[in-house]
């Protein structure tokens, strides 16, 4: 049955939950580590969201089970990582982002939105540190990455059920079908899969062949989820893994085979993306050749302009010109975190445009600076992971251009994982110690851009 709904029958949800319990029992002897904790944290978020018909309803004080779970995850991550929050200069741009949220919220007296945005930002910061500490604590055997990847077994199993039983969701725009196993939204489920793709590509201690299998399976799942922005965002990670990741294998005298396979795969990916995004690519061509002519008030857009990029041009202009027509204080500080929910029927489908409205030009610039900061860390990271990290950051940037990963917990987790690996591989190059995040030997604010 293919329709406009996304939920799965409760019997199938129960089957998946049983599979997760069996998997957890099997992994139990190996879960006594930070990697095991990450498996539990990720699983808790993802599994409960499959039950969104029940877990998103208000149960106490207007809050849902998912809301309380998010609070619990944030509190637990902060409890574990609080000693490291001010230990490294690499985290300072995140605090600047938190300050921008608070200034915009207080200026606009936007209490609820500020609290929600602050929780997401604190979850990002603490989970990023937890990922870095977990990878640092392993014995370079890939145990942390394997534990985190195990959290995606059941989500992919749910998706497989939906494919076999044809329990897909028909797209509202073009009638195509998304198979996401009953998750709350195809875009959010695709963000979940992008997280798995990043972990598989960046895992330390796993062979290139094994990582290649993981990457191929996850990308196939991403295609079946059929959220085009996310599929396009996954391509830089895929190419970084197969083209640059093959260099290590090439040094092992398998170069010709690896290069041939990588080239063939690149061709397949190119043709697949071209087929999936033929209309989107045509829209991008129109956008690039317009020379800024599409940046104008919504009322001045033609019907063809309004349909470009699935209506995103109309949405972006609506947000942008609403901000421009406001007073100077709103241009600087915005209208407050998450304030778009009161003013617009649809979210902005672009983080930068949304932040210009919510946090003003100051907040949007701070967010862009924070992203640039972590990209620079990626450039300075361990050489064998440098291109993989850059691919992951490019993927996240593409996602920010077409949707709103900063507004969903899955998007927060994705960026925390990317930046967690980035911080670890950066410090790996800078700290002459077996454990690069060993707190007992590091002074506050010791490691950052300026210090080798």
TrEMBL record:
Superkingdom of origin organism: Bacteria
UniProt entry tagged with the keyword Hydrolase: no
Keyword terms: Membrane, Transmembrane, Transmembrane helix
Record has DNA repair as a keyword: no
Residue ranges of the TM segments: 6-27, 58-78, 90-109, 115-135, 147-167, 187-206, 213-229, 261-278, 355-380, 412-428
Protein name: O-antigen polymerase
